[in-house]
Structures are given as structure tokens and as C-alpha cells.
Write a structure and sequence with these properties.
heterodimer; A: mainly alpha; 15 helices; B: mainly alpha; MetI-like fold
């Protein structure tokens, strides 16, 4: 098993290098003048020359790439040209929104998708089954941003002034704040990496407000997350439901299930204790594979619901030609994605002895 | 086609010769037995007809602002259908009008053309390039395989929409650039499919036999090996067009393609996004329109998979 993991890690290295190169090249390929994109159309040549020199943009491309690699090796992602703020700081600020959003979306997809799939497999061709499959087909076909807008329309406009009304934008209502962890725990003097980690965790409002008992703020941040999480979670939910259904149907046809039934186990025990456990294997894989789709969807969800997350920041950076942010954020996203795929492979080897190499 | 279920003699005529089975007819029969494939085909046929006859269906020019052209036209007017009780003195716009006094229904109808064309073209591009890469990687093997497939891994390591956004911005604005971007990000999946079926097919005895008969490597690849990847390519390609339609709409919705004024579903929504609260029809009409082709391609793709791949019979 260790050898399997190590080999899988080694294969990742050239891919990672390739990613770094592509990210760097794409950022350079984006046409337009970074100086005037940042400082405005009327910046003088002298100011621009100084600007370009300061960010090393006058060096030959291979030299720039070398410098970039060197910088990366020391854990520095550079400073945003536009926000004049280190990219790592920007990440600590923006990543929690995306993490929180994707977490709740995935949570929703799993706690609704798996039961739906199990239910429709055990009641094949019933109304529940047909309904679930119709929902699953629509769920994967409706664009994330259209669903988001429809949800906002229903819950913020049609149901306005009812108990079901939900906020269509932002992370917290105005006037509501979540007190950061360093402040609650009296660690204001903390610096460097630990501080970054704590600030990052503080940014995940539904987590930090929960562990520090800020109930009002927790509820407010949670209410703001419901619509975006549904919008983002519907596609994976539909996929999870479908895979669970087909996987359970397949398992229910196998010999050991017949044996369990022959032993006189009731149907409930057969399905829950014997079949489900085996049926969930492919579901785990599929869940892991959804991460990439979720990150794509997060860009759209954040745009629709006005959330300053990684996706929206990246789109803004691309259109604003903020090379440093494009590189840093894309790299982080690709690394997250790569890690998720790695975990899927490893967990698969762990869960299913047959794919484990000897 | 499914044979009509006519009541015949219960015992077959012993002298009748069994009809030779025909690969194409059998396959088609299998496809038509899949409910989802049939529903998908109905939806797609409808959309193709709408796309072809768009000028006849749409009551207005999709790009013409009607201010000063039509009497009584209002900006972002709510849908007005005379049959459903809308005042007869108001101009009829069944999906209302948008912020530039244009007929939303006509724009949605013409949008079918753009989405279907780009989706089809992007996936055709991806299949051609993917087949090329996959067959070289699988047939040549060795370092070529390694380099090409690692390159595919790198592309797959990015969330597809983000990579597509970056490519569009790098290539410059325009719907043709969006097409290319979506084509590029879709290549790896086809390359992988072709590669794996080439690898599993090239060790077969019939391939060795053709080689012994002196068939050229190109002939072996195209006539003996590649036909094996046809089924998965058709299935994946059908599903892929649906995804491509979604991605184009996403790109134009975000606005990176620049062609904001085109009668295209995603840009229609992106342009009027802020009007959700005052004129939701401008957003809902194209929004639901996008869902239709995606649903059609997904259903057809699922049906084709069940019909064409006997191993997956559930």
C-alpha cells in the first residue's frame, strides 16, 4: 500500500511541474498591458516603465519563469499587482468562502443524494424511483447560474416577507460580524503561519462561529449559504443519486445478497448491512471526482450570489490581467484538485482490495 | 426499428429461414428500445427544427431594437400573449422584451442555432484531436505515450471552466474563441478513451493477422483498431455536447467572450442579470432554454450507452 501511494505521488510531480508551466505561460499569453490594466489608461510611460521593472515584467520570459520557480520553492506566491497585497494573504481572505461553499454543497449532495439513490434502487420503477431519475436528469442539465438565479428569485422575491425568505447575496447580513478566532482566544500577537491558519479558519464562518458559540452570527451565515449550496450542490447530488442507484442495483443481483436472503435476514438488513456497504464504493470515487466540477461551479455560484471567493477573484484577476494572482490562485486550485484525485485513488485502493497492487 | 407485434402463429414455420441479423438494424432497434434515448431524440429533433426554421418561427429580428419601429413597445415589458388575456392594444411578445426593446422570444429561438452549432463544433474538434493524440499514444506507446498522456493529465488538473476562461482571455474575445477553448479542455477525455481501446485492441489476433497479410500500419490503425473506439466515442461525444452547451453558456454569462450583444442564451442572462428582481422573464426564458438541449443530449447519451454497450445492461 505504501509503495502504491509513493508511486502515485511520484507520478504527480511531473504533472505539477506541467501545471506550473501552463499557469505561467497562460498568464503571459493574456494580451494587454498589465500596467495600464492596473494603474488606469492614463498612466504615463515613466510610471509604467517603473511599474514593469518593479514586477520584473521586463525580463526575458525564461528568466521570469526561473525567478517564479525560485520564488515558489520558498513558499512565496508573490504579491497581487492590483491589490498590492501578498497572494497568500489574499488566499487566506478568499479561500474560506469557497471552502465553506463547496463543503455545504457536497454535504447536501451526499445526505440527499445517497438516500435518494438507495430508495429508488430498492423501489425500482416506483414513483419514487421515476421521480428521482427525472430530478437527476434535470439536475445535471440545468446550468448552475440559472438554478442560482431561479432560487434567488423564488426565495428572495416570491417568498419575501414569509418565514421561508432567504438572502440572495453576500455572506452575512449588514451589521452582523463573526469575531475572528485570534480575538476570541486573545492571540492577537500571533504572527506568521499559525496566524494565517487561524485567520483562514475564522473566515469559514459556519465553522468559527460554531466553535466559539456565536449563535446569532452562525445562523445568519448559514442562512446566507443555503441558496448557493443548493445551486452548487444540485449537480453532484443528481450524480450521487444516480450512481448510488445503479451501484446498489448491481450489488443486489450478486450471490452474497442471495445468501443473506437465504439465511432469513429481513430485506432491511440485507440492503443496509450487506448491500449498501458494497454499493457505496463507486459512490466514494464519484464524490471525489466531483471536486473539479464543484470548483468550476463555484466560479458561477460566487458570481450569482455575490460572494468574494476564490472563483470570482480569479475571474477578476484574469480580466484585470493580475498575473501574480492568476498564477497563485490557479496553482492552488490545481493543487487542491490534484490532491483530491490522489485521495480518491488511494481511498479506492484502501476500500477495494482488488485494485490494491501487490 | 422494433418489429410490429402482430399476432402470428404461435409455432414458427419450420421451413422459414431466420432473417440474417443486420448489425445496423439491431443496433438501431436497441437504441429505440431505450426510453431515455427516444425522449432525448424527440427533444433534440425539436431543437434542430427550431434552429433550422428560426427565421420562420421568430416573429422579430433577434437583434433589432423595436423602439420607434413598433408602436407601444416598452423596455423590459412583461410577457404579453393576446390569447391569455393580454390587452389587445399592446404588442404581443410571448417572452416579453429586453433592455434594448428586443423581442426575447425571437432571441431565444435564434439562440438555439448558436448553442447547437458551437456545442457540436467544439466536440467534433475535441474528438478529432483526441482521437489523433489517443491513437498515437496507444499505438506508438513508449515515450510518446508518456508525454502525450501527462500533457492530458495537466489539462485535466484544472477545473474545466477556469481553464476555458483563461484560454478565451488569452486567445482574445469572440464566440469562436470560446468554441476553441471548450474544444481544447474537452480533448483529454477522448484521448483517454481512444488510447485505452487502441491498447486493448492492438494485441488481438486479427490485428496480428492483418499485419502478417502486409497491411500498412496506418491501415491497421484506421481499419482494424480505431473502429473499436467508435462506441465509447459516440456515447461520450453525445454527453459531451451537452456539457459543451453548458460551458459556452457559462463563459458568455460571465462575459469573458465579449460578444455580449449576440442572441446567445448565456450572454442574454449575463447582460440582464441585475434585472432578476424587476424583469425575471428575461433571465428565466433563456435559462430554461439552455436546459433543454443539455437534457436532450444527456438522455440520448445515457440511452446510447445502455443500448450500445451490452456489458452495461442493467
Amino acid at each position: 500500500m505504501t509503495r502504491f501511494i509513493v508511486r502515485r505521488l511520484l507520478v504527480t510531480i511531473p504533472v505539477l511541474l506541467g501545471i506550473i508551466f501552463i499557469v505561467f505561460a497562460l498568464a503571459r499569453l493574456i494580451p494587454g498591458d498589465p500596467c495600464r490594466a492596473v494603474l488606469g489608461e492614463r498612466a504615463t510611460d515613466a510610471v509604467c516603465n517603473d511599474f514593469i521593472h518593479r514586477y520584473g515584467l521586463d525580463q526575458p520570459i525564461p528568466v521570469q519563469f526561473g525567478l517564479y520557480l525560485q520564488q515558489l520553492a520558498s513558499g512565496d506566491l508573490g504579491s497581487s499587482i492590483k491589490h498590492s497585497q501578498p497572494v497568500t494573504e489574499l488566499l487566506v481572505e478568499r479561500l474560506p468562502t469557497t471552502v465553506e461553499l463547496t463543503f455545504w454543497a457536497m454535504f447536501l449532495a451526499i445526505i440527499v443524494g445517497i438516500p435518494l439513490g438507495l430508495l429508488s434502487a430498492t423501489r425500482r420503477n416506483s414513483i419514487v424511483d421515476v421521480g428521482t431519475m427525472v430530478f437527476a436528469n434535470f439536475g445535471v442539465s440545468i446550468p448552475v447560474f440559472v438554478l442560482g438565479l431561479i432560487l434567488a428569485f423564488i426565495f428572495a422575491i416570491l417568498l419575501k416577507d414569509t418565514p421561508f425568505s432567504l438572502p440572495p447575496s453576500g455572506r452575512l447580513s449588514s451589521g452582523v460580524t463573526v469575531i475572528p478566532l485570534v480575538q476570541v482566544w486573545g492571540l492577537k500577537d500571533l504572527q506568521g503561519f499559525p496566524r494565517g491558519v487561524l485567520d483562514f479558519l475564522s473566515g469559514i464562518y459556519t465553522f468559527s462561529a460554531l466553535i466559539t458559540g456565536q449563535w446569532g452570527a452562525w445562523l445568519d451565515s448559514f442562512r446566507h449559504l443555503i441558496l448557493p449550496a443548493i445551486a452548487l450542490g444540485t449537480i453532484p447530488m443528481a450524480i450521487v443519486a444516480r450512481i448510488t442507484r445503479s451501484s446498489l442495483l448491481e450489488v443486489l443481483g450478486q450471490d452474497f445478497v442471495r445468501t443473506a436472503r437465504a439465511k432469513g435476514l429481513n430485506e432491511r438488513g440485507v440492503v443496509l448491512r450487506h448491500a449498501t456497504r458494497n454499493a457505496l464504493l463507486p459512490v466514494v470515487t464519484v464524490i471525489g471526482l466531483q471536486i473539479g466540477g464543484l470548483l468550476s461551479g463555484a466560479v458561477l455560484t460566487e458570481t450569482v450570489f455575490n460572494l468574494a471567493g476564490v472563483g470570482r477573484t480569479l475571474v477578476e484577476a484574469i480580466t484585470g490581467r493580475d498575473y501574480v494572482v492568476i498564477q497563485g490562485f490557479t496553482l492552488i486550485i490545481a493543487v487542491i484538485y490534484l490532491t483530491a484525485n490522489l485521495l480518491v485513488d488511494v481511498s479506492y485502493g484502501y476500500l477495494d482490495p482488488r485494485v490494491r497492487p501487490h | 426499428m422494433v418489429a410490429p407485434a402482430t399476432a402470428g402463429p404461435l409455432i414458427g414455420d419450420p421451413l422459414a429461414v431466420a432473417k440474417p441479423s443486420n448489425l445496423w438494424r439491431d443496433t438501431l432497434g436497441n437504441v429505440f428500445r431505450q426510453r431515455s434515448a427516444v425522449v432525448g431524440m424527440v427533444i433534440l429533433t425539436f431543437l434542430v427544427l427550431v434552429a433550422i426554421f428560426a427565421p420562420l418561427i421568430a416573429p422579430y429580428d433577434p437583434n433589432q431594437g423595436l423602439l420607434g419601429v413598433e408602436e407601444g413597445v416598452q423596455k423590459r415589458a412583461a410577457p404579453c400573449i393576446h390569447l391569455l388575456g393580454c390587452a389587445a392594444d399592446k404588442p404581443e411578445h410571448i417572452f416579453g422584451t429586453d433592455g434594448n426593446f428586443r423581442d426575447v422570444f425571437s432571441r431565444v429561438v435564434f439562440g438555439t442555432r448558436i448553442s447547437l452549432t458551437i456545442g457540436l463544433a467544439a466536440i467534433t474538434f475535441a474528438i478529432v484531436v483526441g482521437t489523433l493524440i489517443g491513437s498515437i499514444a496507444g499505438y506508438v506507446g513508449g515515450w510518446a505515450d508518456n508525454i502525450l498522456m501527462r500533457l492530458m493529465d495537466v489539462i485535466l488538473a484544472f477545473p474545466s471552466l477556469l481553464l476555458a476562461i483563461a484560454i478565451v482571455v488569452a486567445l482574445g474575445t469572440g464566440l469562436d474563441k470560446a468554441l476553441l477553448a471548450i474544444g481544447i479542455v474537452s480533448v483529454p477525455i477522448y484521448a483517454r478513451i481512444v488510447r485505452s481501446s487502441v491498447i486493448s485492441a492492438k494485441e488481438n489476433d486479427y490485428v496480428t493477422a492483418s499485419r502478417a497479410l502486409g497491411e500498412s500500419p496506418r491501415g491497421i490503425l484506421f481499419r482494424r483498431i480505431l473502429p473499436n473506439s467508435l462506441t465509447p466515442l459516440i456515447v461520450q461525444g453525445t454527453l459531451g455536447i451537452g456539457t459543451a452547451v453548458l460551458e459556452i453558456a457559462a463563459l458568455t454569462f460571465i462575459g469573458v467572450t465579449g460578444a455580449l450583444d449576440a442572441a446567445e442564451w448565456g450572454s442574454m442572462i449575463g447582460l440582464e442579470r441585475s434585472q432578476l428582481f424587476s424583469a425575471p422573464h428575461i433571465i428565466l426564458a433563456p435559462g430554461l432554454a439552455i436546459t433543454l438541449p443539455v437534457l436532450g443530449f444527456n438522455l440520448l447519451g445515457d440511452g446510447l450507452r445502455d443500448a450500445l454497450d451490452p456489458r452495461l445492461n442493467r
